[in-house]
Amino acid sequence: MTGLMVTSPFLPIQLLTKTAFASFGDVIEADPSTMRLINGGTTERFHALATAEALGEGASIILNIFRGQPRAFPYSVTMMERHPFGSQSFSPLSGRPFLVVVAEDDGGKPGVPQVFLAGAHQGVNYRANVWHHPLMSLKEISDFLVVDRTGPGNNLEEYFYSEPFIIEEPKA
Ligand SMILES: NC(=O)N[C@@H](O)C(=O)O
Ligand code: NI
């Protein structure tokens, strides 16, 4: 019997892990398996956690600070975006968790969003062309170091869902 499969609009929140996030990009955190001692043993280098991509002639990598207003909950996810010509990373500078919302590509549009709770010690790097929701700070105004791409071409594609998905207040 073929019935319309109805997806609940309420999105579950999962903890951010490298494995769970692998198809979307990288988790930027002090992973002991990446650590090498440098500077005469006075510094631990957690090496090559992610790769920044700047695609196209004349493109370059830039470093930014995003100061995000906290999101109010329950939150309606009405849209997603992606950057076809470059990666984009978010690393928290304010010492608090944040939400990461991504989706697989489904024939050129985002599928059902997947929501991850990132800890204050975790950042993410979205690979180029990965669907994601714009920055979602929690509780207070929060700063993030953002590494992404500048250069020619339109590096922002947006998609608006016909019906919103709902995220309830995270227990962070
Ligand atoms: N537009 C912009 O620079 N920010 C978004 O790309 C975002 O992911 O927050
Ligand atoms: Ni973005």
From TrEMBL:
Reactions listed under catalytic activity: (S)-ureidoglycolate = urea + glyoxylate
Pathway: Nitrogen metabolism; (S)-allantoin degradation
Keywords associated with the record: Lyase, Purine metabolism
SUPFAM superfamilies the UniProt entry points to: RmlC-like cupins
InterPro entries noted in UniProt: RmlC_Cupin_sf, UAH_cupin, Ureidogly_lyase, Ureidogly_lyase_bac, Ureidoglycolate_lyase_dom_sf
Gene3D superfamilies, sorted: Ureidoglycolate hydrolase (2.60.120.480)
Any GO molecular function: ureidoglycolate lyase activity
Cofactor: Ni(2+)
CDD domains the record matches: cupin_UAH
Enzymatic class: lyase
EC number, as in UniProt: 4.3.2.3
Superkingdom of the organism of origin: Bacteria
Quaternary assembly: Homodimer.
Function per UniProt: Catalyzes the catabolism of the allantoin degradation intermediate (S)-ureidoglycolate, generating urea and glyoxylate. Involved in the utilization of allantoin as nitrogen source.
Family: Belongs to the ureidoglycolate lyase family.
Protein name (Swiss-Prot/TrEMBL): Ureidoglycolate lyase
Source organism of the structure: Rhizobium aquaticum
